[in-house]
TrEMBL record:
It holds the Pfam family GHMP_kinases_C. InterPro entries: GHMP_kinase_C_dom (IPR013750), GHMP_kinase_C_sf (IPR036554), GHMP_kinase_N_dom (IPR006204), IspE (IPR004424), Ribosomal_Su5_D2-typ_SF (IPR020568), Ribsml_uS5_D2-typ_fold_subgr (IPR014721). One of its GO terms (molecular function) is 4-(cytidine 5'-diphospho)-2-C-methyl-D-erythritol kinase activity. Residues 66-144 form the GHMP kinase N-terminal domain. ATP binds at residues 94-104. The gene is ispE. This is 4-diphosphocytidyl-2-C-methyl-D-erythritol kinase. Catalyzes the phosphorylation of the position 2 hydroxy group of 4-diphosphocytidyl-2C-methyl-D-erythritol. Pathway: Isoprenoid biosynthesis; isopentenyl diphosphate biosynthesis via DXP pathway; isopentenyl diphosphate from 1-deoxy-D-xylulose 5-phosphate: step 3/6. It catalyses: 4-CDP-2-C-methyl-D-erythritol + ATP = 4-CDP-2-C-methyl-D-erythritol 2-phosphate + ADP + H(+).
Length: 284
């Protein structure tokens, strides 16, 4: 039997860091939502007890370093599954972009294998398993829009933001999440974005207030390492995006746009500076 799962990309509408914890992770407050740029996973049961990953993308690991492999191994070990699986990853989400591509593949693998092997695992339990693989994986298991706290694994589902266009631009640089958190001096942050104001903006359905309350404390760290990300933000603003922010630890910058008439002008303007530009909708 073959099954299919979609693994969408996430964006962080708000990312605040409260403090560095003793375990090396940071205590965060994030508001995350999904967009309709997605990897597609095909999973097929194997009679041999092995996990095989393939992908059309030449630039990701296909061995145990792949997060989908790790997710399959985790669920197999934890639930004593003696069967194997062949997973094909059709990658569309740019890698190491701040869009949680690998985390979403891991989450889709957990959801998919739960179905394929009829394990009957609850969504909460899939999230707990996911947290062993990465801080973004639990959110990618549930999708929707959520307030994420702890190191990102504690989730409270909230209403979806008002529908709009999302323009994603990924500059050709690689950013390591560990590196960005490592360079952040959480105790010295002078300004924090307000999760409370963003939650109010979302619950009142005000697109203007959502744009006004976008904020990400990791942005300054990445901008200092890679000034071209700031340049991209400025271009996106100048071309008329209603709200602009870097997603996660970057380097992808997203622009929120309410009027369809503006979208192609912004897209065409960005393409002059950046090869990887995507126009998507929020997944609501
Ligand atoms: C930047 C975000 O993507 C925003 O959604 C997440 O906070 C990071 O999520 P992720 O990539 O799933 O992160 P993980 O794979 O769990 O951790 C990668 C590295 O980032 C740092 N890290 C991550 C999450 C967190 N709350 N504090 C941290 O300091 C740690 O150094 C960790 O070793
Ligand atoms: N299935 C996968 N897809 C993409 N990258 C993967 C995958 N499995 C492992 N990786 C590795 O994980 C690293 C981070 O890739 P990923 O695309 O998940 O980053 P990201 O978008 O910055 O994630 P996040 O927003 O969660 O920090 C890359 O170095 C990549 O080689």
């Amino acid at each position: 039997m073959k099954i299919y799962e979609k693994a969408p990309a996430k964006i962080n509408l708000l990312l605040d860091v409260l403090r560095k914890r003793d375990d090396g992770f940071h205590e965060v407050e994030m508001i995350m939502t999904m967009v309709d740029l997605a990897d597609r996973l095909e999973m097929e049961e194997l009679h041999s007890d092995s996990i095989i990953i393939s992908s059309q993308a030449g630039y990701i690991p296909l061995d145990e370093k792949n997060l989908a492999f790790q997710a399959a191994r985790l669920i197999k070990d934890r639930y004593n599954v003696r069967k194997g699986v062949y997973i094909h990853l059709d990658k569309n989400i740019p890698v190491a972009a701040g869009l949680a591509g690998g985390s979403s593949d891991a989450a889709a693998t957990l959801r998919g294998l739960n179905r394929l092997w009829e394990l009957g695992i609850s969504e909460d339990e899939l999230c707990t398993l996911g947290a062993e693989l990465g801080s973004d994986v639990p959110f990618c298991v549930t999708g929707g829009t959520a307030l994420a706290t702890g190191r990102g694994e504690k989730l409270e589902r909230i209403a979806n933001p008002p529908q709009c266009w999302v323009i994603l631009a990924k500059p050709p640089i690689n950013v390591s999440t560990a590196d960005v958190y490592g360079k952040l001096r959480a105790s010295e942050l002078k300004r924090h974005p307000s999760a409370k104001d963003m939650l109010e903006a979302i619950s009142s359905g005000s697109f203007a207030d959502v744009c006004a309350n976008l904020g990400n404390v990791l942005e300054n760290v990445t901008l200092q390492l890679h000034p071209e990300v700031l340049q991209l933000k400025e271009i996106m603003q100048r071309l008329g995006s209603d709200g602009v922010l870097m997603s996660g630890s970057g380097p992808t910058v997203f622009g929120l746009v309410s009027k369809e008439a503006k979208v192609s002008r912004i897209y065409n303007g960005l393409r002059g500076f950046c090869k990887e530009v995507y126009v998507v909708r929020m997944l609501t």
